[in-house]
Design brief:
Strand order of the largest sheet: 1-2-3-4-5-7-10-11
Structural class: alpha/beta
Strand content: 5-15%
Order of helices and strands: HEHHHEHHEHEHHEEHHEEEHEHEEEH
Oligomer: single chain
Distance between the termini: 42 Å
């Protein structure tokens, strides 16, 4: 792999840095975005789709309603110490019972599309066989109400809620076949009403956090032995694409993957090797297989540990390498990698320090021979992630440069940030930091793919804001809020935040 040392101060605009229109994180213009919605709306290209996104496990609730079975995440939340606040998603935002209210929020927001996920254990409780009628009825109603409101559905088939009945989960190759069968069944029922299909959401995150580090469900700590779980997911992706096409679905088909531009902390060879390894595991493992039909070669020091990448059955790679109509990009910020262990928050999703003694013990791994350095030149979100919008341009540039003609049109399938939003004494929720975050990142993306931009040539088709509603944020429980709409979880009151009103104005001012 050829590594480019990224300049942390690099900016991706064609304007003078002193100009208030420059979309940099340190510009005073960032404080003006709540008053500049119409300006951003006017910049959105014709046909550019804007939507919001959610996932079934995070917002639906109704954990035991309508024949839904347990997922690995339901089990994971019962384990002491796994979730920061000890909570679970059995009720969450109660979308299962408040579907119509939430569709009304979408309609009033003015979005073009809504990205949701089918709950696998709600539709197919045993992970195999016929679909559950009550689950079908719920999603039938959701789709019909979305279409009646003029909102195009984008459906994700798998957003981390593996049915607990599938023993071994993605460690088991058979799960890939089950997923392909599931896709065929779902496509046959709903294929006439869905505009876009996403097979998998962030398969590398499932491998890294669920099977390698153990910080997310199912909590395994396999280290390099987790690599087959990525392969099985990608095999499932290929089989799902085949299943959807066999079901003759009308919508476009793609996958969603999280990309993080990776840089070594220094010019030392050791930092470079670990940066290459992290780039492979986080970014290229999925993208290379899906877009190029091959796995990347591991850095030489890890050739034996990662030999699966060079010994994969070519027939499997042919199944994985299916033609796609779009590629979903979830941008998660840049990563700066340094050799040697360092401090990391216990249970942190982005912690990369791993203790080899934890491997196979059931305890989350907390130490590795490398670590992610804090990018001190950038502020952080409420969830502790770097707020570095200029690197979204780098992510788009890397996709273009690495995959060229193999890269289909790109959609930003999740763009958002968590902040500790709270209602004031009048019940209003003001979240200007989220407005800044969304505006700056979307502006950088538009600049990057525009004429003269660093990612010119990338066909960027749309953006989905994460998320419509506050919900259950995985191992963080309810300690982070990521919605445009505030949810008071004790009585399920929904209150649109200032970011909701801002996006509403952006959309109302499109050219």
């Amino acid at each position: 792999m050829v590594r480019v040392r990224l300049d942390p101060e690099r900016r991706f605009t064609n304007t003078d840095p002193k100009d208030s229109s420059t979309m940099t994180r340190n510009s005073p213009a960032t404080r003006e975005w709540p008053r500049r919605a119409s300006e951003l709306g006017d910049r959105l290209p014709a046909g550019f789709q804007v939507g919001t996104a959610t996932s079934a496990f995070q917002i639906e609730g109704g954990a035991r309603d309508g024949g839904r079975a347990e997922s690995v995440w339901d089990w994971f939340t019962t384990q002491p110490g796994r979730i920061v606040d000890g909570s679970n998603a059995s009720v969450s935002a109660d979308h299962f019972h408040r579907l119509s209210e939430d569709v009304t929020l979408l309609a009033e927001l003015g979005v073009d599309s809504y990205r949701f996920s089918f709950g696998w254990p709600r539709l197919q409780p045993d992970g195999r066989g016929a679909l559950n009628r009550a689950g079908i009825a719920f999603y039938d109603r959701l789709l019909d109400e979305l279409l009646a409101a003029g909102i195009s559905p984008m459906a994700t088939l798998f957003h981390w809620d593996t049915p607990a009945t599938l023993r071994g989960g993605w460690r088991n190759r058979d799960t890939a076949g089950r997923f392909g069968d599931y896709a065929y069944e779902v496509g046959g029922v709903f294929g006439d009403r869905i505009h876009s299909w996403v097979t998998l959401n962030e398969p590398s995150a499932v491998m890294l956090n669920g099977y390698l580090l153990g910080t997310q469900a199912p909590g395994d700590t396999l280290l390099f032995d987790a690599l087959p779980t990525a392969h099985h997911q990608l095999l499932g992706h290929g089989l799902a694409v085949q299943g959807l096409r066999a079901a003759d679905v009308r919508g476009q088909i793609g996958i969603t993957h999280a990309h993080s531009p990776v840089q070594p902390a220094t010019d030392r060879e050791e930092d470079g090797i670990y940066a290459d390894l992290y780039d492979l595991l986080h970014n290229r493992l999925v993208a290379d297989a899906v877009l190029l039909g091959r796995y990347p070669a591991p850095p030489e020091p890890f050739a034996s540990d990662a030999r699966m990448l060079t010994e994969t059955d070519p027939d499997d790679l042919r199944v994985i390498h299916q033609p796609l109509d779009f590629y979903g990009l979830n941008y998660v910020g840049p990563s700066r990698v340094a050799a040697g262990s360092g401090a990391a928050p216990a249970g942190s999703r982005r912690a990369a320090e791993i203790d080899a003694e934890a491997a196979g013990s059931g305890r989350p791994v907390t130490r590795l021979p490398f670590h992610l350095q804090t990018l001190r030149e950038h502020p952080v979100t409420g969830a502790g992630r770097p707020n570095a919008p200029e690197y979204l341009g780098v992510a788009l540039q890397e996709l273009r440069d690495r995959y060229a003609e193999a890269l289909p049109p790109v959609v930003l399938t999740a763009l958002g940030a968590g902040y500790p939003d709270a209602a004031d004494i009048y019940g209003e929720v003001d979240d200007p930091l989220r407005i800044d975050y969304l505006a700056e990142h979307l502006s950088v993306a538009l600049d990057a793919v525009g004429t003269g931009g660093v990612a010119h040539g990338v066909d960027l088709r749309g953006c989905f804001v994460w998320s419509l509603l506050d919900g259950f944020e995985w191992e963080a429980g309810y300690t982070q809020r990521q919605g445009l709409v505030h949810v008071k979880f004790d009585d399920q009151t929904r209150t649109p935040k200032s970011s909701y009103r801002w996006l509403q104005e952006v959309l109302a001012n499109r050219a």
